[in-house]
Amino acid sequence: MADPKSCDVPPTSLLQPEERNYSQVIFSRMEKSFEPGTDIVCYFTFTAEFQPARKDWVGIFKVSWKTTREYYTWISAECDEQGLEKHVTFKAYYLPKDNDDYYQFCYVDHKGEVRGVSIPFQFCPKVQEEDEENILLVTTEEEAQRMKEKLSELEETSIQLQEKLEAAEKKNCVLQQEGTRVASQQKNLIESLQAQHLGWSNKTDGLKQQNQEARRQLEEERCRNRSLQLKLASEEEEQVRLKDETRSLQLEQNQIKEENMNLHQRIKDMESALKESSEEAKNHAEEVQVLKGELRDAKEGHQLLQEQLQDTQLEKKKDQDSIDLLTKEVTDLGQILERKEKALETAGKQFTRLQREQATLLQEMQDLNCTVELREDEISDMQKQRLRDGEEIEKLSRLLYQKSTSTPGGQGLYFPNPYEGESLVSLGNEPQSREAPGGSSGVRQEQMKCPECGWEFQDSQVYLDHVMCHGLDSME
C-alpha cells in the first residue's frame, strides 16, 4: 500500500482523460458499498488491447473528479498473480471514513492516462430496512432521482455529440472556426445545465439521507449508463480508426512524389478508401438519428415525470419550469446538430474534390521538376566536357611546343588546336604536297616520314597523331 504522504506520487496528468479508453481495464466483483474501517480488495481484468506497465496504479477517486491528480489514495497495480483476473488490497487506514460521498476505482497507466473506471460505491455501514412510511417516501424520491438521471443522460448525450462534431471538424480546416464557436456554445450550455443540476441536487440532499434504497436503485441505473458509455467509447474508437486511415492516405499522397511508377494505382486506392470513409460517415449519421430518437423518448419520459411531480409536490413547481427550459435548450441543440451534419456532408464532398485537384497538380509539378533537372544535368555535363577539352588541348599544345623546341632540326614544329578550325601544321623535315602542273585539280600525296622512328605515312592525320604520341612518350 502506498501512503501519499510518505511515498513518491504516482504518474498523473493535468489533462482531462478520454472516456474512450475507460473500457481497456474492467473492474469485477464490485460492491455498492463497503464497511468503513475494513480492508477492501479491488479485482480487475485486462483486455487484449491493453498492455500493463510497471508504474501502473489503481486509485480511489471521489465521483465528479476531473484529472488523475484528484485521487484520494492509490496503490501500485503491479502484482505477481497468474491468470486473467488481478487484485490489489487497500488498507483500512488509508480509506475514507463513513460519509455520504460516492467513490470509484480508476486504473491509471504509467503515462497518467485512465484505462478503466468502476461503478460508484460508498463507505457506509449496512442499512437496516425502513418502515412503511419511509417506503412511501422512497417511492417519491425514486421518481425524483429518475428525473435527475434522465437529465444526466441528456448531458452525457450532448457531450458525446459534441466530441463527434469536433472530430469531424478537424478533418476540414475550412469549418474549424465555426466548429470552435459551436463547441464554445455547447460548453456554456453544459455548464448551465450542470449549475441547474447542482442547485436541484442541493434541494434533495435531505431526502437522500432518509432513503438508502433509492440510492441503490440510482447506482444500478448508473451501472447501465456505464455500459452505454462503453458502447459509445467503442464507437469513438471506430471513429479514431477512420481518422488514422485518413492520415495514412495523406501520407501516401506525400510518397507519390518518389513513386512515379505506381502513381495512378495509388490514386485509385485513395479514391476507393475515401468512398468507404464517406459510407461510414453516413452510418454515423444514422447512429446520430438513433440517438435523437432516444432523446425524444427521454423527453416523453421527462414529461411523464413532470406530471407526476405536479401531483405530488406543489413546492417543486419552480424546478419544473427550469426542467421545461432545459428541454427546450436540448431541442435547440438537436436542431443545431442537424445543421452541422448537413454542413459536414457538404465539407466532405469539397474535401474529396480538393484531394483530386491536389493529386493532378502534384503530378504536373513533378513532371516539370523532372524536365528541369534533366536539362540542368545536360547543360552541366556539356560545360564540364567543354572545360576538360579545353584543358586537354592546352596541355597537348604545350607538350608539342616543348618537343619541337627540344628536338634538333625541329624548329618550326607547330601543332594548333584542332577544334579552332583548319590550320597548317608544319614540320622542319616534313615534305609538302605539290600541286600538279596545270592547276589545283591534281594533288599528289607525298609519303611523310617520322623523324623519331622513321615510319612512313600517307595520311596526314595519322602522321600527326603518331608524332604527338612520340612527344608524350618523351615527356614521360
Automatic annotation (TrEMBL):
What are the protein's UniProt keywords?
A: Coiled coil
Q: Which domain of life is it from?
A: Eukaryota
Protein name, UniProt field: C2H2-type domain-containing protein
Residues forming the C2H2-type domain are 450-470
Q: Where do the coiled-coil regions begin and end?
A: 137-171, 204-385
Segments of this protein annotated with the region Disordered: 407-445
